Amino acid sequence: QSKDTEERLKVIPKFCFPDSEDWVPTSELKSETFSFVLTGEDGSRWFGYCKKLLPESKGKQLPEVYCMVNRLGCFNLFSKILDEVEKRREMSPALVYPFMRSVMEAPFPAPGRNITVKSYLPGAGDGSIELCRPLDSRLEHVDFECLSKCLSVCHLIRVCASLLLERRIIFVANSLSTLSKCGHAVVATLYPFTWQHTYIPVLPASMIDIMCSPTPFLIGILPFSLPQLQDLPIEEVPIVDLCADKFLQEVSDENEILPPKFQAALIQILEERNEILSQEKIFSQDVTLNSLVSEAFVRFFVELVGHYSLNMTVTERGERIFQREPFRKSHTSRSVRHFLDLFMETQMFAGFIQDQELRKSGIKGLFEVWALQYLETIPESEP
C-alpha cells in the first residue's frame, strides 16, 4: 500500500464518527445514512457510505457505524445496501457478514444495469435484492429532494454562484444525512464542470482547523462545531444553515455573480418545479425532481458556454486549442462577459476546457448533446 492510501485508511474512523464528541449513551436513536469523500494527493477520490444505528439491546449504549468505501460514487445504490445491513443487524449481527460478502463478490453494475445479490434472510427466502445504477452519471450521487426542502431557490442560487467562483462555503445541519445529501446535490448542479477542491460533506470536529485553509472548500459541520468557528479566520466565508434556510454569514454579493437574465430563467424553472412535474405526469412523461433540477442547470450552462466548440482551433498536428478571448467576447451581453471574466479563471473551467481539448469523438453526455443542438439555433455571427 502507498503512504497516501495508508493515511486515508487511518482517517476513515474519524469520518465514520464525526459527531463522537457530542455522544452520550442512549436507548433511542434514529438510524442515519450519510457519506464522506476522501481526496488523495493525486486528486483521486474515495467515497465512504455509512449507516449509523443503535444495536438492539437493553439499556443505554453508544451507536455503531457500518461503512463501505468505493472509488465510484453512487449514493442511492449504497444506501439501499446499507438499509439491508440495518434490517439484518436488527435480527442478528451474524446475518450482516454473509450479506456483505455477497455484495463484495458481486460485480459492480454498469451504468443503466441491474445486478441481483442473494443472501439468506429468515422469513424472506433467499433475501435477494436488486441493485440498480443510473444510466446517466449526473444523477448517480444525487438527491435533490433533500436540498430543495432545506434551501429556498434564491438561497440555492446564491450557493451555486459562490461555488462557480470557487469560494469557500460551510454548510451547517443537525443531521449527518442532510449534510451528505445536500453537499452531493449542490456539487452535482455544477455539471458539466467538476468541483476540483476540498469537499468534506461532514467534517469531524477534531479536524476543524482545515477551515483555516485559504484554498476553496465545501465543508459540512454539525451545530456543536459552530462555536469553534469564532476563532478561525473565516470572515469572508458564507455559512449556510440548512435546517433554518438562512445564511449565518455571507459575502453579500452572491446575488450579483450570475448574469441577471440567465439567473432569472433558472430561478423560474426551479420555482415552478412542482407545477412542471405535475404537468409532465399528465402527459405520462417519466420526469423526476432529480432530472428536472439537473436539466435546468444544464440548460443554464449550455446558454452560457455551449458555444465553446466554436472557439476550438485545430493545429497542423491535430491538436485542439481553445481560444479564450474570442470565446469571452463572443457574448454580446456585458453581464455575461463580466461573469466569464471571473469564471474562466477557475480550476473547474480550466479542467473542463482541458477535457474538451483532449476529447476524442465518442460518448457524449447531456451537456454535449444539448450544446450541439444549441449551436444549430444561433446565427453564425453570434455564440
UniProtKB/TrEMBL annotation:
Give one Pfam hit by family name.
uDENN
PANTHER family cross-referenced by the UniProt entry: DENN DOMAIN-CONTAINING PROTEIN 2 (PTHR15288), DENN DOMAIN-CONTAINING PROTEIN 2C (PTHR15288:SF6)
Enumerate the UniProt keywords alphabetically. Guanine-nucleotide releasing factor
Q: Does the keyword Ion transport apply?
A: no
One MF term in the entry's GO annotations? guanyl-nucleotide exchange factor activity
Tagged with keyword Hydrolase = no
Q: Where in the numbering of this chain does the UDENN domain appear? A: 1-363
Protein name (database record): DENN domain-containing protein 2C
